[in-house]
Amino acid sequence: MPAGPFVLALLAFTVIFLAAPFPRSLGAAPIRDNHPTAADTLERMAQAAFGPLSLAELRMVRTAPTRDVAWAGPVQDPDAAPNNPASADTWGNDRKIRATLIIWLLSNPDAAKLVHPSGIGVAGARITGELDLSYLSVSLPLTFIACSIPDGIDLSFAHIRSIDLRKSWTGPIALQQTIVNGDISLRYGHYGEVNVFRSTIDGTLDCSSGHFDGSNPLSVVETAIAGDALFHQGFTTGGLIYFRLSRIGQSLSFNDARFTGKGENGLNAERASVGGTLYWVDVKTSPHTKLDLSNAHVGALWDDAASWPAPGNLFLNGFTYGTISGGPADSATRLQWLRLQPRAMWVQPQPYRQLAVVLRDNGRPEGATVVEIAHENALTEYGGGSFGTRLWRYTLRWTIGYGYRPLQALWWILSFVMLGAILFRWGYTARLMTPTEESAYETFVKTGRPPLHYPPFNSFIYSLENFLPVVELHQGNYWRPNPRHSPAGRPRVPFGGETLPARMLRLYLWVHILAGWTITPLLFAGLAGLLRSS
Fold first, then answer.
1. Are strands 96-98 and 126-128 parallel, antiparallel or unpaired?
2. pLDDT tens string 162-192
3. Confidence of residue 529 (pLDDT cuts 50, 70, 90)
4. Number of alpha carbons in the 13 Å side-chain half-sphere of residue 399
5. Whole-number Å distance between alpha carbons of 6 and 3
6. Distance of alpha carbon 419 from alpha carbon 424, whole angstroms
């Protein structure tokens, strides 16, 4: 056979052989992926349980096994206008997520084990129905950014990792007896009434820039917060914030906060305990804003006078604080602060004593004394009591400063002694001061001078001796105002008559002696600290 036809036949056979399919016993089947991803499995499970999923639900389910956030909106920007929850009513069905689907993802054992440890993350979605996670133990964080949850969230008696509701608009949020092993973020959004009762928050409660609605917008009662409770950057509410009986490990901070509306609003932290600092700075108040710190305790106080509530709206009885870290620290301004309490509270001793202790500990002993005296003044003016009681208190006030300034009595002693010296000297010159012995008296009437053996008159010594009790300087027993004498150069008064100048001088001597018997013992009692009420 010629070589040419043979080569052609060989080539034809080779082509036919290579083109024929191999039997299965001669080769492996094509490689195919028969192992679906966690997202595929979760999607199939969700569709089996809930039927067809919306686009937002599908994104959430498929994103759940990852660390990503499922964006339901057209853009991935929480500040973009299309993601503003205020317009959630205009969002289409493709942005809706059923609350029951979220609950299923967190509570169904088969589904929950496919969710990433970073938890559920959704942004720009409208959650329909109440997100009821009450009594569940959820070990995963919850993140809902710029979402609309109009029917609210119920976490009562739940055990959760953390919850982030930044920029979201929600209905009421229930957190009664909830354990949160992390933070609660209610920032930048609008929130319905939030009820936190007897709960435990291991992290921080951050409400900065949040708007809280309702007559009881945020009630945190008997709750333990390990971190801070923050109300910063334009936090706004028209109601009363409650922190009664709560314990905060770090700070309770209102900085750039706004209290608005015609109804009662402000902060009630009665019997609360704050381990760090209570900040009340740059707070805008209304005439109805109240700040109730009755029986509360804070490690330090930092405030400013412009943020104080209106008169009658501050309650400080039982309030204790370790120091004043910022804001007014002088006694005069702080006394104005105390006067913002209702008038019936002005006489309560504890607010004054606490302020005095802090001022003294901070190196302001004079300021502390001013505060203590201010409390006594308040008792005198507003504490009631009989006329005699008030007269006695006024005596203590003007003589020895209620015992806090006993040396103040020296000015009264000096004034009385000098005044007496002037008046008694005038009386001697006018011959209204006469010797008490008969022979000396006769000589004095005739000559205007006592006998040489008689103790001469010294007006200063006479005034000092009669003012100071139990002091004998040999003047008082030898000279007396004589009411039957006229001033020198005038006719003598008949027997039984009295001249007005002499009578007035005698009356002053009695007042002089009584003042000495009152002021001098008060001086020594004040020096001994016997008259202080605290």
1. parallel
2. 999 999 999 999 999 999 999 999 999 999 9
3. confident
4. 23
5. 5
6. 9
Question: Across-strand partners of 127?
Answer: 97
Return phi, psi of residue 148, to 5°: -110, 120
Report residue 64 as tokens.
Answer: 């759940």
Token pair belonging to 430: 């006018």
Cβ-proximal residues to 25 (8 Å cutoff; 6+ apart), any chain: none
Beta sheet of 194-197, edge-to-edge order: 131-132, 153-154, 173-176, 194-197, 218-221, 240-242, 265-268, 289-292, 314-315
SS3 labels along 285-339: CCCCEEEECCCCEEEEEEECHHHCCCCCCEECCCCEECCEEECCCCHHHHHHHHC
Distance CA 277, CA 152 (A): 32
Q: How confident is the model at residue 523 (pLDDT cuts 50, 70, 90)?
A: confident
* pLDDT on residue 488: 53
Residues 6+ positions from 330 with CB-CB distance below 8 Å: 364, 367
| Cα distance between residue 70 and residue 356, in whole Å | 57
Q: Which of 303, 359, 298, 353 is nearest to 332 (CA)?
A: 359
Distance between CA atoms of residues 370 and 401, nearest Å: 10
294: its two tokens = 């009755």
Q: Residue 180 in contact with residue 202, Cβ under 8 Å?
A: yes
**Interatomic CA distance for residues 125 and 84, integer angstroms:** 10
Q: Number of helices and strands (H, E) in the chain? A: 13, 34
DSSP conformational letter for 449: S
Q: In this structure, which amino acid lies at residue 496?
A: G
- The β-bridge partners of 4 are none
| pTM of the entire predicted model | 0.81
Q: Which residue has the tokens 């509530």?
A: 309
Please state, in angstroms and as integers, the Cα–Cα distance from residue 124 to each residue in 2, 63, 147, 158, following that order. 81, 14, 5, 25
As a whole number of angstroms, the distance between CA 294 and CA 313 comes to 12
> Measuring CA to CA, how many Å separate 515 from each of 90, 388, 458?
86, 17, 20
